[in-house]
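User: What would this chain look like folded?
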Amino acid sequence: MIMGLYQGLQFNSCDFNLAVKPRLTELIDSSTDPHSFTKLFVALAPMASQEIRDGLENTALLLADELTPHQALAVAEALQYIQSRNLNLLNKIASVIQRNLHVYKPVEVTRFIQALFQLKYQNPELYAKLRQILLKFMLRSVQPYEVTMLIRVLSMLPCQRLEEGVISRVEAIVTQCKLNDLNTISIAVAKWLRNDPSYRHNTSSKCVRLLQTLNRCGRERLQKADRLDLLLEELKYTTGEWFEEMLLDETMVTLKRMMDQIHWTNVPALCHFLTKINHFCPPLLDRIATVAIKDIDKIHHWGIYATILPFSVLNYDSANELYDASIQCVTAHISTFEPHMLVLLGYTLALADYFPEALVREIFSIEFLGKLDAELENLSDALTMRARLRLMELNRAVCLECPEYQVPWFHENYCQQFQKQGTVTASPMQQQIHNMLGEVLGGINCVRVAVVTPYFYTVDFECVLDKRLQPLPYSEPSTLQISDRGKVHWGTSSEDTTRDVLPPGAQRVAVNFLDSKSFCKNSHHLRGNALMKKRHLEILGYLVVQVPHFEWNSMELSTPNAWKEYLKKNLFGQLSS
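Assistant: Here's the prediction, encoded as structure tokens.
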């Protein structure tokens, strides 16, 4: 019960969870009735080892027929959280819930459907029945939040054609919807438009008109907004193509109009939104920095991460004073941070080329890493993977940029395993650059592709120029690997080979193609991670040539000769100067 209360408050404590886990494990043998077992299962399964989890699932299977409707729903959501693959248990819980569908409220049915979808559960007959129940709820619902919830889940279910009654119900409440509701409805409507060509080619269809109404309501709501706190609450879960295409520009206009309402209480929420939409807006960032610096002691230290995140991720280099103030705040409360949060903080500071010694030494201490490992056993798989990746990237950054800290590189095996998980597909533009580089350098054997550097960066293309700027051929040919399905994949030509010793005066050159993910969405401003990679490759001895997608695809570079001249200028120009 205490854990449930903490979760309701969105409060997480590593120390509390580590203390709770053995106590809950002790209760397994005594929790034999459906009521106590359900509470135990929901609390313990997400943090239990696979062995204990298997035992809990076996007990759940034996007790399933005795569970009340709401206990069965709680177990289903716990199975969703742990991504269970126990098909016998899933079938049993689904049958229990199916027998009791008549007692569930609309929100409970939607929770069950979401759990089934997350678990990739296959049962067409059950989904058809659930869809009919959702339609009945929809046709008698009058509350905007409930209609929004129902249409979101309806869009998840198989459907050949959207009923007119659903569209009419949405039209009836759309003018009362908040931005996050409008966003949810637009995603569902756009999905139906994609799935049914008859809607797409009929501009007078109700679906198309509804999408137009959503656009209009969203713009009007932004134009009438006058309180920043309320607007940020509506924008909290607003994202996706519709929002970015239809409302993002208007949203930024509205936020700049409300800059005088930026206060230390809403700084973390605003920063989170700017990071999420990947939008570079110096006036807003300047205002945020001014407010945060002035009241840094009032912002809870757990909110510092969200506050500095857009400055690092969006690569805003005019926030030195904010970083200094934030580092002082973090250092003063360093022992109170959850281990994974401290890792995320350390990586965010490293993006901006900040490596406070106290923070680095804390994170890379044996005691801290042991505590981090223990905490990650209790977190979701997604958050665990993110924390481990950020720890690796922080470890790499510290080794390269702060060798004086003498932090060892201990992620070699992790990187090797991570690399084997998938093959990177080469885009047509990368294939084109590869061919052009071969022509510019006098032969395809003068270019290596997908070169894995020390510390496991991957360079799109590598070449070596001698002191007279002449390309040096590699001993092994460099090719793009073709898969059985005809897709082109990057090779790993240097992964298992010793790096060549360069002749005196020679220069190793890295050529990286930068797609749209390397830049902020509203400009050609380079993001922090792309800049950090360039910084690190230079430390490793590379001359780094970055080829932005908007330059390579420009009208100016629309002929083979223009592309080759562009590459020559970038390859040889920097060295000759």
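The first strand starts at residue 448 and ends at 452. If you want, I can go into more detail on any region.
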